[in-house]
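[09:14] KT: can someone run the structure on this one? pasting the chain below
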Amino acid sequence: MASSIGIVECDCLSDVLSATDRMVKAADIRLLRQEQVGDSKVALVLEGDADEIDRALKAAKQGAPPALTTTNVPNVQQQVMNVFNLPTGRNWGRTK
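[09:31] RB: done, structure tokens below
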């Protein structure tokens, strides 16, 4: 189980994709899911150790527009992962 989850949100998919590229190059993280939030926002959820999530979120903000926001949720319990149906322990894109 990951000790932290991170969330990256922006109103432009290409900005989220660029941020994702920077994050996976900068830190050892696992991408969990991408969600469409409302009509225009895109959110990306990732997991990893607390230090790796911090490093990834800092990389996401480098060169990003002000509309891109990041959130770090440290020390996440398994119950939270279950409530939000986050696929902890599974590879990106794989079904149950």
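[09:33] KT: thanks! The chain has one domain: 4-83.
[09:34] RB: yep, looked fine to me
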